[in-house]
UniProtKB/TrEMBL annotation:
Taxonomic source organism: Mycobacterium ostraviense
GO cellular component: membrane
Stored PROSITE patterns: PROKAR_LIPOPROTEIN
The organism's place on the tree of life at top rank: Bacteria
Alphabetized UniProt keyword annotations: Membrane, Transmembrane, Transmembrane helix
Keyword Transmembrane helix: yes
Segments passing through the bilayer: 7-26, 32-51, 58-77, 83-108, 151-170, 182-202, 239-258, 265-289
One of the Pfam families matching this protein, by short name: AbrB
Designated name of the protein: Ammonia monooxygenase
């Protein structure tokens, strides 16, 4: 009972701290303020509690569905011809960004020996931070480092976008209209899609089913063009979903995990800089290809921060920004699933060599053979195994190596006996 009251007290402190930081960041007009506030609050509580502090799956699953539905909202007001016109440049830039992320992931794997290849790759994928961090706990990677590196990149992008726009002389960011398509019917339909598609993906054993399945349904239904029925949720409900996702990411940052992430912080910052530099190169390509200004082309190629980019884009370049950001986000989420599955499968197919038990010398193990294996199995499974094997084991352990070593002319090799 005392443990339950203590956990309830931790949650109360986490909620109060999240609300305080969220209101403060919202007053500063940061589009991802509630997510950052929840991540920081849950991280502080996890460090104080000395254990992971993660919400229950009954909160995580609806939150994942809300994030998946919100992905397709930027495309809801665009015509099919407009989206199709930007698919070429979007595919080229998304593929180039993915190649850059693969190179960064390989370099991070070589530089940080403690990270698995799947963890290094997921931490360097530029785009879809919320989706990647949401599915990371289900993909057999170090989701704590993935969350820290992904959200650190998003924060850096959110803070540097106004600076870049100011340096190139672009106008100030305008308020991004949200909730214009939200009605009671659309909200009810979106909730029904989240539940139905999520449980269908769970039945089909999809990775992160409550994120991927609603996302695919929303993209298919919102693609035809303006005037169609839009699956949208109120902004307040999306804010709550981002808070839950932030709690999931921050609650896993225990003191031990935070120390490891801090040791890797210089490498993390270096690869974030490489991602931003690579996207600046793509900005020149997009500006020359489409004829938009450098500032709007940069918003279309920023390594993450889709809502920051949409909030700062003008009406003329918003279709390009929305198409490129959403397509790259979808590509990065798919790449995260495929790459993590392939890398973990390769690791499982090449397991480490079994270590020799140092309890007896190698020559003793070679002489004992099958009785020694039975002794090891008996110690680990059943303490009361055959007494004859016990006597044989004790006799071999006390005998000299020459007495129990196999004869040189024995036709069966010791390895065959083992």
């Amino acid at each position: 009972m005392r443990q339950k009251w203590r956990t309830a007290g931790y949650w109360l402190c986490c909620v109060l701290l999240t609300m305080t930081l969220g209101l403060l960041l919202s007053a500063c007009h940061m589009p991802i303020g509630w997510l950052i506030a929840a991540l920081a609050s849950a991280g502080c509580i996890a460090v104080l509690a000395g254990r992971e502090f993660v919400p229950h799956k009954f909160l995580l699953r609806p939150a994942q569905g809300c994030i998946g539905m919100a992905v397709a909202v930027p495309l809801s007001g665009l015509a099919s011809t407009t989206i199709a016109g930007y698919l070429g440049i979007s595919a080229v830039c998304s593929a180039a960004t993915l190649i850059l992320c693969l190179v960064c992931g390989l370099a991070l794997t070589r530089a940080a020996k403690t990270l698995s290849p799947a963890t290094a790759l997921l931490s360097t994928l530029a785009g879809g931070a919320s989706g990647i961090c949401t599915m990371a706990p289900e993909l057999r990677v170090d989701h704590r480092y993935v969350a820290l590196s992904q959200y650190l990149r998003v924060v850096v992008v959110a803070l540097t976008v106004p600076l870049v726009l100011h340096c190139v002389g672009a106008p100030a960011a305008r308020p991004h209209p949200a909730g214009s398509h939200v009605t009671l019917i659309s909200s009810a339909a979106a909730i029904a899609v989240i539940v139905a598609a999520g449980y269908a993906g769970l039945r089909w054993k999809w990775p992160a089913p409550f994120l991927i399945a609603p996302m695919l349904v929303a993209l298919v239904t919102q693609f035809p063009g303006p005037g169609q029925f839009v699956l949208a949720l109120p902004s307040e409900l999306n804010a709550v979903a981002y808070v839950v996702i932030g709690w999931q990411a921050g609650g896993a940052l225990t003191l031990c995990a935070l120390r490891q992430c801090l040791r890797l912080l210089p490498l993390t910052c270096a690869f974030i800089g490489v991602a931003i530099g690579g996207c600046l190169v793509l900005t020149v390509v997009v500006s020359a290809w489409t004829g938009v200004t450098f500032s709007q082309a940069y918003l279309a190629t920023t390594p993450g921060g889709i809502y920051v980019a949409l909030a700062a884009s003008d009406s003329a370049a918003e279709p390009l920004v929305a198409t490129m950001q959403v397509l790259r986000l979808l590509m990065m989420n798919v790449a995260a699933i495929i790459a993590s599955k392939l890398l973990t499968t390769q690791k499982d197919s090449h397991p480490d060599e079994p270590r020799e038990d140092p309890a007896l010398p190698g020559v003793v193990r070679a002489g004992v053979g099958r009785p020694w294996r039975l002794a090891r199995a008996g110690r680990s499974t059943s303490p009361a195994f055959d007494h004859r094997q016990r006597r044989l084991l004790s006799a071999c352990a006390t005998a000299s190596p020459s007495a129990i070593a196999p004869a040189a002319d024995t036709p069966r090799s010791p390895t065959r006996v083992m």
